[in-house]
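In response to reviewer comment 3 from the previous cycle, which asked for concrete evidence that the modeling workflow produces usable outputs, we include below a single protein chain processed end to end. The sequence was submitted unchanged, and the resulting structure tokens are shown without manual editing.
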Amino acid sequence: MSRKKDKPKPHTGKQGRGTQALKGILEITRSGIGYAVIGDGKDDVLIRPNNFNTAMNGDEVIVKVTKQNERSLKREGRVVEVKTRKQTEFVGHMQVSPSFAFFIADTDKPMPDFYVPLDQLKGAKDKDRVVVRLKQWGADDKKPTGEVVKIMSQEDANDAAMQELLAENGFPLSFPDDVMEEAERLPEVLSAAEIRKRKDYREVLTFTIDPVDAKDFDDAISIRPLRDGVFEIGVHIADVSYYVEPNTQLDDEAYKRATSVYLPDRVNPMLPEKISNELCSLRPKEDKFTFSAVFHMNAKGEVKQSWLGKTVIHSNHRFSYEEVQEIIESGEGLYGEEILLLNGIAQKLRKKRFSKGAINFSSTEVRFKLDEKGKPLGIVVKESKEAHQLIEEFMLLANRTVAENVNKIKINKKEIPFPYRVHDVPDEEKLNPFIAFARKYGHKFDISSPEAIARSFNQMLADVKGRPEQHVLEQLGIRTMAKAVYTSDNIGHYGLAFEHYCHFTSPIRRYPDVLVHRVLESILNNQPIIDKKMEEKCKHCSERERAAMDTERASNKYKQVEFMSQYLGEVFEGVISGVAAFGFWVETVEHKCEGLVSVVSLSDYDEFRLVEGDYSLIGKRSGRKFKMGDKVWIRVVAANLTKRQLDYEWVIEGGKDIEEEEEPKSKKRRKK
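The workflow returned the following structure tokens.
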């Protein structure tokens, strides 16, 4: 079903005799030396600070190689062009005098100060903490020029931390004026002429199911009975591409961001709120334009026929997941009959998917209860219940159906460039040690084919449910998996066991979905788009998705550290979630907050060594073992918000100190 992808080829071009132009990412070390990461399998190209040519850390650059050691093959070069800026907004502080002003960024990576014209200060004063946007930095400019876009409150450390994380990962903190102006000009009243071009579903029962605090409703479900036990079920998706057209400021900005970023206390949206929360959001009691996948299905989940096209809908009700879950569990409530029917079909689709080789990994997410300043008051572990699975299964069905339909279209016997969502088979180097580890718990793996591996995973996941090793095997199993990405090279989706798959259902918050809508619409209009830059766009969207995940993880970690800082000195039960030569990580059972127990803190007790194949640390004298998945007790000893780091120390079961345990024999001998 799947195959390994070829490595991306580096951009090359002639820059005069005997020289090459290479495209890469500039990474600047704390010492100030830079390296262009090319991805051609060779050493990175060393770039000295005077050869950065206005490039900053994380920028995509074109590099000219100026030196190459024939023996070591080490390369040195200079930046000849900045292709794409990773970051255009920065958090830092101002230095303001009567005649000039400079901005100094808060970063551990060397970068120049910005010159800020006095008329661009927007009220900022000397020593104010601000967000500054890069306006200009030409080759002849000694310093970059910037403008203040926000003055940050001195007392709101949380706001500054969240904005800094977004900026560091290249996500703009505000929308440019021309983008906002373009959004404001979009019509709020649906065009009667456009309505006549679409299938009208406004009289069909339709509702949305979303998190309780959601504002951007991407998707809605409609249902009505047909005949002979067949139902028409519609998956209706916000028609973002109707409002966001190619080659507009809105589209350029959406592509640049490529995704919304969800932090504990805010959303950094891909599109301005006028679009994401108003025009496109499928709010109840409002007519909305949608792009739909409509299915004729029976109660067994068998699809008799499907239709894809533009529609207009009217959502009758907005449900939260919790409300739908209550209807599923109690069997009664508003539109209870329809919800129970949809849930029954969804569960059958889910069962069928797993029987065909989809891997049933479960994951837990945490949600923070915050006060008005964003300070965490509590942590809630989110569970995936049947209400979530109801929406998930119908979205998967729509995504798969769109990809299957697009894949059938050929131009000159070639597939149309399309942003598939693919997931490769597990990497053997990661899989083999995991299989050996799982064998210790009695789990056998059939590795004769990718499908057999998937069946083995599912058997293992079913067998370990509720057992002590469940957590460790699930976590290690997930780590063997490849990362899903966007690409025009359709190798299938291994984890879902789909031959064709794409993202169609969340265009408000994901740019690949917008691309999917455009390609699909062009096919339905018999004028297929041939986008020669599709693979480049896919790579950009994959990179932005990874950056968003990094930002979200870092923000969650910040909140966890902030939350646990109130428990310094207190003892909690935890599970060892990772091991390394320098210590082991523990995730608290109650709050899912991870911290490090350093081997230094254990040195008075014993000397520990890492046993990699066993994912454990073992004491040389005592034989004491700390193994991934073991339950332990820890004390919170430090919470560093700047580094987003929690430090724990191990204590004996029941919360006693190490010193209270019977002393090791070696210590007793020393006392004699």
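Residues 21-84 form a domain with the OB fold (Dihydrolipoamide Acetyltransferase, E2P) fold (CATH 2.40.50.140). We consider this sufficient to address the reviewer's concern, and the full set will be provided in the supplementary archive.
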